[in-house]
Write a structure and sequence with these properties.
The structure holds 3 protein chains of 3 kinds. By secondary structure, chain B is an alpha/beta fold. Chain B is built from 11 helices and 14 strands. Helix content of chain B is about 35%, strand content about 20%. Helices cover about 45% and strands about 15% of the residues of chain C. Classes of the chains: A alpha/beta, B alpha/beta, C alpha+beta.
Chain lengths: ~425, ~350, ~120
Amino acid sequence: MKLEVGYIPIRDIQFGPTSKVDGNVLYVNQDELSRLLLQDEAIESVALDIARPGESVRITPVKDVIEPRVKVHGGGGIFPGWCAKVDTVGSGRTNVLKGAAVVTAGKIVGFQEGIIDMSGEGARYTPFSTLNNLVLVVEPKQGLAQHAYEKTLRLAGLKAAEYLGKLAADIEAEEVHTYETLSLLEGVRAYPDLPRVGYVLMLQSQGLLHDTYVYGVDAKQIIPTLISPTELMDGAIISGNCVSACDKNTTYHHLNNPVVQDLFAEHGKTLNFVGVIITNENVFLADKMRSSDRTAELCGYLSLDGAIISQEGFGNPDTDLIMNCRKIEAKGIKTVIITDEYAGQDGASQSLADADEAADAVVTGGNANEVIHLPAMERIIGSIDAVDHIAGGWSGSLNEDGTITAELQVITGATNELGFNTLSAR
Amino acid sequence: MKQIKVVHYLNQFFAQIGGEEKADIPPESKSGPVGPGMAFKGAFGDAAEIVATVACGDSYFNENPDVALAAILDMIASFEPDIVVCGPAFNAGRYGVACGAVATGVREKLNIPAITGMYVENPGVDLYKQSVHIVSTKDNAAGMRDAVALMVPLALKLARGEEIGTSAEEGYIPMGIRKNFFDKKRGSRRAVDMLLKKMAGEPYETEFPMPDFDRVVPNPAVKDVSKAKIALVTSGGIVPKGNPDRIESSSASKYGKYDLEGIRDLDAQTYETAHGGYDPVYANEDADRVLPVDILREFEKEGKIGSLSRYFYSTVGNGTAVASAKKYARAIGEELVADGVDAVILTST
Amino acid sequence: MIITNNPAVTAAYEQMKNVRYVEGSYRDVLVEVRNLVHIGHELVTHPLMGSLKPNETPYRSVVVSDEPVQGCHTEAILIIEESIAVFDRFARTARPDRGAHASEIAKRDFREIDLSLLKSALDA
């Protein structure tokens, strides 16, 4: 599969009478977009707001972050199974409004959703402080059940990203990146001497607020399977996970999966990036056995020399991570795992919920319990008293003067387990 | 630069007071360096002076930790040191625990920097590595020179309030405290680079060392438990009342072998626990809770097991050095094999 | 069999499944599960399901087999014992408004999440 991704850099975002991209500025017609979103009867009201890099703005509670993209040609549409039909994506040409994002905010439950600070100490810990964000604050109809509210908010985010993405369809891209995954046989012929490397992408799949979708299918239902890395770039995988802000993978993360990016950077040079295996993190122990067995089988079947395994979440998923690592290593395939840590506020606790001597090559996204101090911001988009209830906040962590003392856990994307950030720990 | 004042803590042996027979002496002090203090003095040169040495018997410290520590801290404080150096203790368990406790006490109660040194398997390491810098030494006093060579520069840095480098740089045992920092490359890039090295068989450094797994492959299952001779071995410290062999409550230097002939049940009159690491109330009330003699006698009677072996073996696992535990296990293992034992039930706490 | 201290779970499942209600804390539920696993019950769901940390939510539901099952349950024993160890590690960080001290609204949400994670597992 071969995909060209065209970047249209966005350096500013404004509300305006017509939605368009002019130069490097994204203009959004508030009314038009609001009306589009309000077509969902479950939504009572929607407020659109803007947050730019460097501004004294805090967004909370953040549910998802999505990047505006559009399929220019090549079959299917962005976010198959949601905004588009389920046709296979990942080939042809996709344009991206690079530097822009849609952020959904809404109080589904009072916790487990994050903070994005656009400046100050907190901005260092989230990649979303560098983006021009269109924030959707969605109020549900009275009495809407939590799972329905979650779905509504998820769809609103995808719709808004699709709406904005379409603005990029006819624009000349400043950069074009080409990604190609050869068929198994072609790959063997083209790179006979390069080590064969696969990427095992573990998807959060435990239930309400803990879900991920593949072509519209709940990841709980899948058995481990192959997917082409370029399919991720067209939104084949989207996030329904809003638990533990610091290490949940937003849809933005899935679209811009850094392991995929960095493996492609080496593809054909120092390694043969054979493909991606997706697997899940179910609650049933039998499912874990099945998924890790199948994942290891697939790795063996692909004759891999090495595999990078990334996870999402803590506790239950740690068991899956270690199972996958152990079984793949048992086939003689070298692994590197990417995880984050909960080592306590003093950094002295055992960081992972599970462990094994086979996991001898670990990359960490950092200790999520480390305490940070966020300055007050001039403007809050969303609702600030959610902070005390967010994982990692605690009573009194929102100080009178608007500063926040909380664990790193509260910041969206801070300890990402795809290796998106430079944060690490020793 | 002002000369740094050092107080040195030693046990009875290194302070040249006596051997095991003097292990019960209470804390005492004298001015200037003693024993290994001379090696430290040489390495410190003009930068620092050992103004006093405080010594305490290892048994005294371990049996009276609170009283001993309080007295030791008072003595140390009276000399107003800039830094306190303890040991090194090498692989001596009770000494290592004392050094760790004193160094930690000096830091936390006197707010004075302190360091110590010991072998990585010394029980003092697990107890104190997160509380104070412990320099990694060899397992016996032949490593004194190397230990001094690492402890002196680190002590000077601490005394001067200078930045301390990583454990690899400074020679101390990793403290197991995680600290976040921003790397140059993002995690995925670090993962790709790490994998390339690992696949090529090149050295790489994991960002998170897994805990030490001392995995032992289990033997195959006993074919027929109803015919098996089962022995009881415990690190829970169960001993005949009065602890006739004087097994220590921590850092045990021995194990005991006791006869269960004719005994169907352990009770408060006849057995107790010597272990100092858990609340002894329930074990003293009924030692079967730690060493299930009564249940096994029942099973014996009902034919569920072949027989309960005549002797049980007991030691105290609290703060006992790995090397010691291995030594006892080998000796006990030989006897068990000679007695025709098929399986062992090992209890701890 | 569902071991739980979540009244919402009991209400939802007591008619159709074996539910053992534990009057106590999240940890008490884990200990009850451990006791059952040690006498041979199989562990069906992971004791640490969900990303709510053990010192945040006061509710926990775990599914084990209805009856003890013959065989070696090492994996299950290790998982439940590790889970209790993880709980105790997290319990060291005080959370004055979490766990048992959470507000009524937060507790309602915690009950709902625990119930829905369980539902997703059982109804799958």
